[in-house]
């Protein structure tokens, strides 16, 4: 076995060990001991899979009735069925987040079914495949902007009046660590997520004294279906990009959203919460060196050298 094969074997072993060490959450484990959302109504836009589905199920496990919206109605009904099978309440509604009438309809259906709205998570996203900025098709760029920024704007536009009528509430929007730091080849995605962060701060200020809190989560690499489909090499690369040297799970994002929508975060609004294994804190090189000295060869089992 040559040095390259040894290095790859070590990385495979570390990745599997990190995956084994990674916290595993079932929906019912997210709120141990009691239901922080009991008697409340939560809406999730973009709830058919991944983080959105995990968050919808977390809301239900915490005692909320859940209004689910997404384009993929078959997948959406599957999420609703899982919630109902555990004794929860769920309403699935077809949704195009870029269409005002569609978003209004989602909120109206929730109000007519459950009578109020206490919490919302705006999670839908779309855009072009990764490419250098000058290679991005303008129509694909527009799709990324309209889905992220307009979709989040429309969600809040109709959720906020419903919450005002309900006596207040909490909204969490979905951004990304890329909306804070930037990522090469993701022009539409980065611009869209940065725009969501800006919208969130404005909405938080507009309604801070009217009983509505608005915050935004900014995940780093999360093991959703996209990263699963990308395969082991992409997953290893994503894990190594974080100081914690692992990827996050949808349940970990769901837990953060749930907390931000609960009374446990009652004095928090306008905040960006990274869920990124430490990426927002800065860089953690896998190996350091002393100035003027050769770097130790980690593949030889010498371990990490001291920082200079």
Describe this structure in words.
The structure is a single chain. The protein is α/β, with parallel strands linked by helices and 308 residues long. It has a single domain (35-277), classed as NAD(P)-binding Rossmann-like Domain (Rossmann fold, 3-Layer(aba) Sandwich). Helix content is 45%, strand content 12%. It contains 10 helices and 7 strands. Strand 1 (41-45), helix 2 (50-61) and strand 2 form a beta-alpha-beta unit. Helix 2 packs parallel to helix 3 (73-85), helix 2 packs across helix 10 (250-261) and helix 4 runs parallel beside helix 5 (138-166). The radius of gyration is 21 Å and the shape is globular.
What is shown here, in short?
This protein is an alpha/beta fold and 308 residues long. It has helices at residues 3-21, 50-61, 73-85, 100-114, 138-166, 178-181, 187-207, 225-230, 232-240, 250-261; strands at residues 41-45, 65-70, 90-94, 119-122, 169-174, 212-219, 272-275. The protein is globular and about 70 Å long.
Question: In percent, how much strand structure appears in the residues?
Answer: 5-15%
- Indicate the multimeric state: single chain
Number of strands: 7
- Number of helical stretches of at least 4 residues: 10
């Amino acid at each position: 076995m040559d040095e390259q094969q040894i290095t790859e074997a070590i990385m495979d072993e570390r990745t599997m060990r990190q995956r084994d060490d990674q916290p595993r959450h079932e929906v019912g484990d997210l709120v141990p001991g009691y239901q922080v959302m009991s008697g409340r109504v939560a809406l999730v836009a973009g709830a058919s899979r991944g983080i959105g589905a995990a968050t919808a199920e977390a809301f239900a496990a915490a005692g909320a009735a859940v209004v689910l919206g997404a384009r993929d109605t078959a997948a959406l009904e599957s999420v609703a069925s899982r919630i109902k099978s555990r004794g929860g309440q769920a309403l699935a509604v077809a949704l195009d987040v870029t269409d005002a009438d569609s978003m209004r309809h989602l909120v109206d259906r929730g109000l007519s079914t459950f009578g109020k709205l206490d919490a919302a998570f705006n999670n839908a996203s779309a855009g072009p495949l990764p490419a250098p900025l000058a290679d991005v098709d303008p129509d694909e760029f527009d799709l990324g902007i309209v889905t992220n920024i307009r979709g989040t704007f429309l969600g809040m536009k109709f959720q906020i009046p419903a919450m005002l009528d309900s006596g207040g509430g909490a909204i969490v929007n979905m951004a990304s660590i890329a909306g804070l730091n930037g990522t090469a080849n993701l022009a539409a995605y980065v611009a869209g997520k940065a725009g969501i962060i800006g919208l969130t701060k404005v909405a938080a200020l507009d309604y801070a004294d009217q009983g509505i809190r608005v915050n935004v989560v900014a995940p780093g690499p999360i093991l959703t279906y996209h990263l699963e489909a990308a395969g082991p090499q992409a997953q290893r690369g994503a894990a190594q990009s974080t100081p914690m040297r692992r990827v996050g799970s949808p349940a970990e994002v769901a837990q953060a959203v749930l907390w931000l929508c609960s009374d446990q975060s009652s004095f928090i609004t306008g905040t960006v919460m990274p869920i990124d294994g430490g990426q927002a804190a800065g860089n953690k090189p896998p190996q350091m060196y002393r100035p003027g000295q050769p770097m130790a060869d980690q593949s030889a089992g010498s371990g990490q050298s001291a920082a200079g």
